[in-house]
């Protein structure tokens, strides 16, 4: 297209220059096809009504039955074959069909005029291909644009339909009125238009590339067409959007068919009884209706969709259908005597308006809005779900409406034409009102669906909706407890523990002891065998040493040693497997008994296990759970474990006795812990003894902890000492608050978390800087604890948070978390300042991307070139995230919203970017979102595009060129970038002036500042 014309249309229809090729070719495809389809539609309806009067409801049913069969095949191949190839096949088939029908019609007219069924065949066949093509062509068009682009370009592309229809109507009138050709000889035009479309599709295939693929990337097991539709059904009943789309389609079809019968069978034949005059009227109608459709399509639809959104636009069509249904109902109800002669003009006007709403407004409003709903569905699901809607739901609805019409029209004794003339629009009115109701949940489900597409794992697996319902819960648990599969046993134990089913105490305890007994029976022979194998291996090895090297006897003995060692390894592996399986079951049994009521019976099970168990881990767990049974006294049996060599067993036994209310020798237990602590000052078990000392909660022992807290070089020891320190103080932490604040600077996240939890029990801090800085930590647990501490003292720390919020150098995460705490407390001036900062970040995002583009294209590539490129990309990403952060809180979003949108915007896929932009548009924030959309709508082929976008958004030129871009690089505030630039330019004669920060110098000489000790 000429440049000036392209610019004019770009301004008029909001089409970007990089989109015109795709828009132009698809517009021509719609235009050429609609030209031929307008011939076939007008001629087919006129010939059918003339030659097969009263058979229109049956034709509806036959059309949809054929579409149902075709949809099954379509559902099978839509995931295997590209959308463009399927569309080519449809047009080839339709062209062949049109040429065959033309030949048959010539034969029938001249030799066998009684074969009127040929008119029904043409009517059904044409609409069969017509429906399938329009089912599929929307997916093909959408695959070449992202979700935001398709909203803007769909109306311009679809404008080819009314233009083609208008041209077709004009040519048809000329052929009928001027050339006096019979309609029977004009079917060939349909075939020729299909050949023209095929030529255009070849051009599209050669010049354009799709953005979204409807072919599944993961090829699974091949499915039959029926199973494909079953798969779609499973997806639909798990998708709120598809459920309401299906219900909306049912009521739309019912209203559509009833209204179509009203004007095609009741009104038009009464006004135009002759087939030729009716065909001429249809041709004139096509001209003016399509021109009106075109104006609505170009100047109304796109503005409605972009301005109001897909959800609201989807409400308009059923409202119009309800209005025309009400008008027809009132008109014919108040004309009980059917006075046609006196009201032909008004009746014709009603028929034309009804047909226009039913047919043209369907194409101008309902079809574009309905097709855009599929943006909320994964592209690889488009074909199969459209096949389900149009292959099952649509035929079902048509069969329902057709059967109803056949029943109503075949029984003249119940209903005559006068009764039908107001009964049918009354039912259509009810169906339209229900369609309006269905549009509201569609709207909500669409917004949720587009948001869901930003989660890349959302559609990885199909939900299993056919899971078997379990019977009685008790029987199921008992069955799993007695299973030989350890996974089933563990699942049953978890169920008992979570639901706290106390009636299973005895079965669980019995199972635990039974597993222990079984383990002894199974492992004892294996242990003996392993012992004997080890002895034999050593004996054979010693015998082989005394034989000459290379002798036959020595070689045989060495082979026996190898076989013995292999057998020993197999035995040990079998032992490990048995013990591991039994260990898991025993551990879950212990955890389950601890969660159930603390009865004497449950305690007896634990004590009995102590007497037979040898695994130290199980012993420690058992003793820990026994400490919960304060109402049962088994202290004598537990005391013997105070001499156990394993630290964990000793500690749990000591704490169990110390916490028991009836135990008298608690001082002896404390002395034993202190003794072990002194004996293990340098051992790996030292943190365990510090933990035990803290659990005593006796402040007189605090001086034993301070040397480890202040001077130990081991992080695990310092953490254990800190935890013990806080347990001993028990709420009296205020005097020691400085020590806790110092612990926040530790590199150990566990120490940070412990210190933050302790600070919750203290009075509010005077300086919140250290805590606010932790909002930018990488560990999520540290961030959550910091937020919780700040939230508890928000009235005190709010001003410090707001002051930090408006600093320019804080991280995205830190700003996001601060906003989660204070956004609702910001006044309008502060919110406006926040928006201005976000707008400035967007401007910096454009500048950095421009610099990155020039840097990548730079001919002089130093050693740090790739690193600088990566740094610029990260800096640009950071600026964009700052903008999305503000939008998130402007729209009451959350962390999930922020993560999904940013992942979509930063994706290399234009489809993912489009979904993210659609989510932002649906969120409600206008100013920043529209500016982001304008940026992502562009295709950045060179730096001039960045200049154009910057000028469009900020009304000022972007003063970045290839000659001065390095100067702009030096102005960016990034220490690592400055170090890289200095490294790149230090060998050049003329190095630009660059002021290095202290951090940049440290990075250059690789001598970072030593960090202070945490507890200093």
Automatic annotation (TrEMBL):
Residue span(s) of domain Vitellogenin:
658-772
TM ranges: 23-49, 55-75, 87-112, 118-145, 157-179, 185-204, 241-259, 279-300, 312-333, 387-408, 420-440
Acetylation listed as a keyword: no
Q: Which Pfam families match?
A: Vitellogenin_N
Q: Which InterPro entries match?
A: ARM-type_fold, Lipovitellin_superhlx_dom, Vitellogenin_N
Q: Which UniProt keywords apply?
A: Membrane, Transmembrane, Transmembrane helix
Query: What SUPFAM superfamilies does UniProt report for this protein, alphabetically?
Result: ARM repeat (SSF48371), Lipovitellin-phosvitin complex, superhelical domain (SSF48431)
Query: Which is an annotated GO molecular function term of this record?
Result: lipid transporter activity
Is this entry keyworded Membrane? yes
**Protein name per UniProt:** Vitellogenin domain-containing protein
């Amino acid at each position: 297209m000429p440049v000036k014309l392209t610019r004019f249309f770009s301004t008029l229809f909001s089409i970007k220059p990089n989109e015109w090729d795709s828009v132009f070719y698809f517009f021509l495809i719609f235009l050429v096809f609609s030209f031929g389809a307008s011939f076939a539609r007008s001629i087919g309806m006129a010939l059918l009504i003339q030659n097969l009067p009263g058979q229109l409801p049956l034709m509806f049913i036959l059309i949809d039955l054929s579409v149902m069969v075709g949809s099954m095949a379509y559902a099978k191949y839509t995931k295997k074959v590209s959308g463009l190839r399927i569309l080519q096949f449809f047009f080839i088939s339709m062209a062949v069909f049109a040429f065959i029908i033309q030949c048959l019609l010539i034969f029938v007219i001249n030799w066998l005029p009684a074969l009127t069924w040929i008119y029904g065949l043409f009517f059904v066949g044409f609409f069969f291909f017509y429906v399938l093509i329009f089912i599929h062509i929307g997916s093909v068009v959408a695959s070449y644009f992202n979700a935001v682009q398709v909203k803007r370009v769909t109306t311009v592309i679809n404008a080819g339909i009314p233009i083609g229809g208008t041209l077709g109507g004009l040519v048809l009138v000329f052929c009928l009125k001027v050339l006096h050709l019979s309609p029977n000889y004009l079917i060939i035009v349909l075939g020729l238009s299909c050949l023209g479309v095929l030529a255009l599709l070849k051009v599209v295939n050669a010049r354009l590339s799709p953005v979204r693929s409807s072919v599944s990337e993961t090829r699974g097991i091949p499915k039959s067409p029926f199973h494909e539709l079953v798969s779609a059904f499973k997806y639909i009943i798990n998708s709120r959007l598809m459920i309401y789309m299906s219900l909306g389609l049912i009521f739309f079809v019912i209203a559509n068919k009833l209204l179509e019968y009203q004007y095609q069978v009741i009104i038009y034949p009464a006004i135009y009884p002759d087939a030729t005059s009716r065909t001429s009227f249809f041709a004139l109608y096509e001209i003016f209706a399509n021109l009106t459709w075109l104006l609505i399509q170009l100047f109304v639809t796109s503005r409605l969709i972009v301005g109001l959104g897909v959800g609201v636009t989807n409400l308009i069509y059923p409202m119009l259908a309800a209005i025309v249904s009400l008008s027809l109902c009132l008109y014919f109800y108040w004309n009980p005597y059917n006075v046609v002669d006196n009201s032909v003009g008004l009746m014709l006007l009603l028929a034309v308006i009804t047909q226009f709403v039913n047919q043209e407004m369907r194409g101008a409003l309902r079809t574009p809005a309905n097709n855009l709903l599929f943006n909320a569905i994964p592209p690889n699901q488009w074909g199969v779900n459209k096949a389900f809607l149009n292959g099952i739901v649509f035929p079902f609805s048509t069969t329902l409406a057709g059967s109803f019409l056949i029943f109503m029209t075949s029984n003249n004794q119940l209903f005559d034409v006068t009764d039908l003339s107001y009964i049918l629009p009354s039912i259509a009115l009810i169906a339209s009102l229900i369609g309006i109701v269905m549009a509201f949940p569609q709207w909500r489900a669409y917004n949720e669906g587009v948001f869901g597409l930003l989660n890349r794992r959302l559609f990885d697996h199909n939900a299993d909706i056919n899971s078997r319902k379990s019977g009685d819960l008790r029987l199921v648990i008992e069955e799993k407890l007695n299973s030989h599969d350890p996974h089933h046993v563990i699942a049953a134990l978890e169920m008992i523990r979570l639901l706290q089913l106390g009636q299973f105490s005895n079965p669980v305890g019995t199972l635990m002891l039974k597993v222990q007994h079984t383990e002894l029976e199974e492992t004892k022979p294996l242990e003996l065998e392993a012992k004997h194998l080890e002895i034999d291996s050593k004996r054979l090895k010693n015998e082989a040493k005394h034989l000459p090297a290379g002798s036959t006897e020595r070689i045989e003995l060495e082979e026996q040693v190898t076989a013995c060692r292999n057998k020993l390894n197999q035995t040990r592996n079998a032992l490990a497997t048995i013990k591991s399986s039994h260990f898991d079951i025993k551990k879950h049994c212990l955890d389950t008994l601890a969660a159930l009521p603390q009865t004497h019976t449950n305690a007896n099970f634990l004590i009995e296990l102590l007497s037979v168990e040898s695994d130290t881990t199980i012993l420690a767990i058992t003793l820990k759970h026994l400490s919960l049974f304060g109402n049962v006294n088994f202290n004598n049996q537990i005391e013997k474990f105070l001499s156990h060599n394993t630290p964990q067993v000793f500690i749990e036994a000591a704490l169990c006795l110390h916490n028991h209310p009836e135990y008298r020798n608690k001082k002896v237990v404390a002395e034993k812990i202190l003794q072990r602590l002194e004996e293990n000052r340098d051992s790996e078990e030292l943190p365990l003894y510090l933990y035990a000392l803290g659990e005593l909660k006796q402040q007189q022992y605090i001086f034993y902890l301070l040397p480890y807290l202040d001077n130990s070089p081991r992080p695990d020891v310092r953490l254990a000492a800190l935890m013990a320190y806080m347990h001993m103080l028990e709420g009296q932490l205020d005097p020691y608050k400085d020590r806790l604040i110092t612990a926040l600077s530790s590199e150990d996240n566990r120490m940070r978390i412990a210190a933050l939890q302790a600070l919750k029990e203290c009075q509010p801090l005077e300086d919140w800087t250290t805590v606010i800085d932790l909002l930018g930590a990488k560990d999520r647990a540290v961030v959550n604890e910091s937020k919780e501490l700040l939230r508890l003292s928000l009235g005190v720390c709010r001003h410090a948070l707001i002051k930090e919020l408006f600093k320019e150098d804080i991280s995205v995460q830190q700003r996001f978390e601060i906003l989660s705490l204070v956004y609702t407390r910001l006044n309008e001036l502060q919110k406006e300042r926040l928006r201005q900062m976000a707008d400035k970040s967007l401007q910096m995002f454009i500048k950095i991307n421009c610099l990155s583009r020039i840097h990548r294209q730079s001919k002089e590539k130093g050693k740090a070139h790739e690193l600088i490129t990566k740094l610029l990309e990260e800096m640009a990403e950071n600026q964009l995230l700052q903008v999305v952060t503000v939008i998130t809180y402007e729209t009451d979003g959350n962390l999930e919203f922020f993560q999904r949108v940013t992942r979509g915007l930063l994706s290399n896929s234009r489809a993912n970017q489009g979904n993210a932009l659609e989510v932002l548009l649906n969120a409600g924030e206008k100013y920043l979102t529209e500016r982001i959309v304008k940026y992502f709508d562009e295709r950045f082929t060179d730096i001039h595009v960045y200049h154009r976008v910057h000028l469009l958004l900020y009304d000022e030129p972007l003063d970045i060129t290839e000659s001065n871009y390095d100067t702009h690089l030096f102005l960016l505030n990034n220490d690592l970038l400055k170090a890289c630039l200095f490294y790149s330019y230090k060998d050049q004669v003329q190095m630009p002036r660059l002021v290095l920060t202290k951090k940049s110098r440290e990075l250059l000489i690789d001598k970072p500042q030593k960090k202070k000790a945490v507890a200093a």
